[in-house]
Amino acid sequence: MRFVLAALALTVASSATQAADAHPIIAGFERFYTGEKPDLVAGGRLLLGELNCTSCHAAEDVAAKKQAPNLDGIMGRVRASYLKKYLSDPHAVKPGGTMPSLFAGDPEKDAKVEALVQFLSVTGALKQEKPDVKAAIIGRDLYTKIGCAACHGPRDGNGLPEKNLPAYIVPLGDLKAKYSITGLSEFLDNPLHVRPSGRMPHLLGTPSTGKKDGKDSRDLANYLLQGVKVSIPQGIGSTSYSYFEGSWKTLPDFSKMKAKATGTGPAFDLGSAKRGTEYGLRFEGYVKMKAAGEYTFTLSSDDGSRLFIDGKKVIDNDGVHALKSVSATPTLRKDDAHHIVVEFFNAAAGADLTVEIEGRGLARQPLGAHIAATVAQLDAKPEEKKAESEDGFELKPDLIAKGRLLFSNVGCANCHQLTIDKKPIVPILKAMPLASLKVTGGCLAEPPAKGTPDYDLNERQRAALAAFIPSSVDKQIDSAAVIGRTMTMLNCYACHARDKIGGPTEEMNKFFLTVQPEMGDEGRVPPTLDGVGAKLNVAYFKNILDKGAHDRPYMHTRMPGFGAANIAHLQPLFASLDKVPVVDEVSFEAPDAKVKAAARHLVGDQALSCIKCHTFNGVKAEGIQGIDMTVMPKRINRDWFHFYMLDPQKYRPGTRMPSAFVNGMSPLPMLLDGKAATQIESIWVYLKQGGSAALPLGMGKKSIPLKPITEAIIYRNFIQGAGARAIGVGYPEKMSIAFDANDMRLALIWQGAFIDAAKHWEGRGPGFEGPLGDNVLSFPAGAEFAVLATPATEWPKTPPKEQGFKFIGYRLTPDERPTFDYSLNGVKIEDFPNPSKVGKDPSMKRTFTLTSTGSSDALYFRAAVGTKIEALDGGWYKIDGWKMKLDAAGTAKIRESGKKSELLLPVTFKDGKATIVQEFVW
Questions:
Q1: Which CATH architecture has domain 592-692?
Q2: Distance CA 632, CA 628 (A)
Q3: Which long-range contacts (CB under 8 A, 24 or more apart) does 725-734 make?
């Protein structure tokens, strides 16, 4: 494969600085196609897409092109002064950028640039906020750790690029001259909106969910723009306000209320409020339209708001609610001062208010950029108002139409998306198809022909394009080649290696950091992508390609999200190349609960000790904090999991993960059927429970497990599922119960470990503790004995004490095994649970001895409750997957009650005594 052979032979030019050569910096080209004997055709293919050549020169069947930035709302994030200088000489303003110079050598360059900037000014007004020193400190840490440096190189404490960067580092240019803090923050929060081709992926916020709160982006913007100057315009951009306090569910009539405070400030700014909740604000100002017609106003608020124009209510967004937007489209007159009133109130936590305008040449943008607190400020003469933005750009509305025409016919619209009045600007410029081009002229000439875009290509880049263009149609492209091209285009090789290509370079390796240095490279360097198609399941793979992820908390570098439109095609390609054999389905002889119990033991500290290195449902491991085990089934394929468990080094070379099943043999032959495949499958089943999986044994440093050895252990405390008056009993036979002394009932029985006393024996000991073991049977609330008028009478729901029950206490055998004593209306009940054994697992036999000292007619024992109860031979019953045997005088009957089945046994006394033996097997 030509791509692979070329890449393997390359060397990286690491000492050149970007400032020495202003040619376009394409990371993949600089890294893989500038060494000795590079594949110029493959390099030319990459350049053709990254320079967006086919936006003008029509072509088919070539590599995906990098769409130029979306210019909708550009003036809300980029300074006009920067844009003017950039369009005049893009290579001087941003060395290494891929934007061509459109007007090189054009005597009318200045006039054309001015007209274009004037036209773009209709897309919005620059949003600003003051720098935050604390945020800049946090932002520096983010930039250094999460992966920004992998593409853009290291930067110093002032946010400036370090010197002598490798040639493949993607330049950022003078960010302070370009952005405001708000503008850069909004871009970083959703870069795919502005740069939809994914070359700048989503990296901030919470990648795995796509949820963003803006904090990461603001912190990073503050770091990168340290020292930026902020100038809030006087007059324009302000409103007067009246501030009120009160508790409302809808907006009150502010005209009948006395304001707590009044003043003038930034338009629609909630910062004028004196407290965080239960307040209202009324904003007033004036606007003038440069053209008559319909304008769409959008009022977004949390809680209620209203918009009035010239005394008429235009939008009603009232009430207590989360952030909600309402729009209306009134008709406004030209040059008249329209009176704007916005009323707002906040009832509880969370306050937000945004007022936007769109229409008649204005892209959707904040109304605050056009409003003034007084008519006088709107009517001020130019020399008084200065009609300038904060960076010296003078608005000249008469040039807007000229700029719009230029945008269409000089090539801007061929590359950039821009929507005005809800309609995209359509390109007029027509260029020669790619297949008809000569490779010695036009953009490839040195210097480029007059009237053609000047990319400032260097000799190697021109040679690569000249090599590719004559053979620009790809006849057959195999999956590996497509993967290689895509990873090169998106600079995936900056972090990941595949087929011995890529991964961090020697210069950049040190910038991949971890919170656990003892993990070595595995804990800091993003994993190789060899075999990833077999490893990751389809849904997870597609999600991380689209939205990104951060499932390895020990690794600072995050997986960015490139957008499904750009990269979703990779998952099936990886899957088609990376295979592991299909693992046969595993059938368990044991019930599901025992399978999970076995797996819980396997991963715990008494068996394979997985918890020594892996977190589990957020609970930290004792040693290094490996990837959370409960996340694994969400990420990886079952077949790959089986093979990885058998031979970790084969499927992830260099991993610290040891092989627990050496030569495919289990070290625990007594567990389940003793086979490795069965035990690995049990772990998979256990982990698939996710957050509901019981913690493995030994998880947590503060564990105080109670371990019965020669006699039973009594534990009286709050036990989950058995109430506040629970009596837990752990038996040496590795079986335990919890008796509810409040309801006089057996609440729980389980197998394995007894209970962890740490919660109740340390500190104040609040809360309920659940069983430490597995295979738990839970029984319904309420007493197990009751007096019924007829066999069909509903089982009582009143508390047992109101029925006449009394808990007497319990008596202990010499080895601490309790008999619980309680009574009901003259009937004394002795309840002795004791472990027995059916097969190789512990079970339980429970013996009731009842003594009647009075009337005992119509006393019933509710032996079982379940979704389905079936009678078996020999006095056995099957209840929802577990079995129970009754040995007693009388005949038990199965009845339906509500949506449940109940097994009722009438208690038969002889000489005032009755015995019931109940045996549980599960």
A1: Orthogonal Bundle (1.10)
A2: 7
A3: 727/810, 727/818, 727/820, 728/754, 728/755, 729/817, 729/818, 729/833, 730/706, 730/754, 730/755, 731/817, 731/834, 731/835, 731/842, 732/708, 733/835, 733/837, 733/842, 734/773, 734/842
CB atoms within 10 A of CB 204: 25
Confidence band, pLDDT 50/70/90 cuts, at residue 7: very low
Look up residue 884 and give its two tokens.
């129970």
Q: Where are the domains of the chain?
A: 2-66+432-479, 74-224, 238-385, 592-692, 705-921
Class of domain 238-385: mainly beta
Q: CA dist 805 to 108, 566, 767, 821, 822, Å?
A: 101, 70, 27, 11, 7
Q: Provide the residue type at 109 as one letter.
A: K
CATH topology identical between 238-385 and 705-921:
no
pLDDT of residue 594: 87
- Rounded Cα–Cα distance for residues 885 and 683 (Å): 32
Predicted confidence (pLDDT) per residue in 122-138, tens digit = 888 787 777 878 788 88
**pLDDT of 208 over the 60 cut:** no
Q: Using CA atoms, how far apart are residues 726 and 744, in angstroms rounded to an integer?
A: 10
So what's the architecture of 705-921 in CATH? Answer: Distorted Sandwich (2.70)
Cβ atoms of 259 and 272 within 8 Å: the answer is no
Beta bridge partners, 636, equal: 536
pLDDT in tens, 520-556: 898 899 999 999 999 999 999 999 999 999 888 889 9
Please give the CATH number for the structural domain made up of 2-66+432-479: 1.10.760
364's tokens: 């959707």
- Would you say 887 and 916 are in contact if contact means Cβ atoms under 8 Å apart? yes
CB distance 308 to 341 below 8 Å: yes
Q: Does residue 382 have a pLDDT over 80? A: no
